Amino acid sequence: MLAVKSLFVWLLGGAVLGATPVAHDIHTTHTRAVVEDGAVVWKVRLFTDDLEKGLRAWSRRPAFSLANDRAADSLFTAYFNAKVRVAADGRVLSATLLQSGTDKDPVGGTVQWYLLQFKAGKQPGSLSVRNTLLAEQFANQANVVVVLAMPGEKRHSLYFGDGDAAAQTVDLRR
User: Fold this and answer.
1) pLDDT along the chain (174 residues), means of 10
2) According to the model, what pLDDT value does residue 161 have?
């Protein structure tokens, strides 16, 4: 079993501190997902300005701000569960939030990260993912999901872009 500390270090990797905000033309999310012992631990990173725009529209709250709203994590979790569908061996799972935070992007701006968990109950043989985070906001939205299936560290990469709302399924035994 992968040590919990090692799992968190792997999932939380990529933080760079100290940057000045700049405009960006790319709209993307990046996810690292570890499947082990009947759970999927999912760390997603999103540009703060993109996420705020998406949450403002989705919640119909034009003044919403991640920094100033006590319910921001709950709002994100509800949005996430509406836009990301994960099924283990055909059974749809719901995510719960474990942790969240903010990192500075190396080229400027900030990035929000969220650590979520899906409980499958037993180690799944297949995982089906549909990821439409922020696709309603940006025509060029790209969502990348890298799945690491344990044991054996089997990697699977999924790309959702160009309005692709179809689920993609990976065989975790391969």
Assistant:
1) 36 39 80 96 96 97 94 97 98 98 85 97 96 96 96 94 92 92
2) 94
C-alpha dihedral (107, 65, 118, 5), degrees to nearest 10? 50
* Domain positions in the chain: 4-171
Cα distance between residue 28 and residue 10, in whole Å:
20
- Listed in sequence order, the residues at least 6 apart from 32 whose beta carbon sits closer than 8 Å to its beta carbon are 10, 11, 13, 42, 43, 146, 148
Residue 28: other Cβ atoms inside 10 A: 18
Tell me the pTM: 0.85
**What are the residue ranges of helices labelled H in 21-172?**
48-59, 72-83
* Extended beta strands in the chain, E state: 28-36, 39-47, 84-88, 91-93, 95-104, 110-119, 126-131, 142-149, 154-161, 168-171
Predicted confidence at residue 11, as pLDDT, reads: 41
Residue 65 CB-half CA count within 13 A: 3
How far is residue 147's CA from residue 158's CA, in Å, rounded to a whole number? 8
Q: How far apart are CA 174 and CA 20, in angstroms?
A: 42
| In contact, 56 and 68? CB cutoff 8 Å | no
What letters, b where the CB count within 10 A reaches 16 and e where it falls short, cover 63-86?
A: ebebeebeebeebbbebbbebbbb
Rounded Cα distance, 121 and 108, in Å: 40
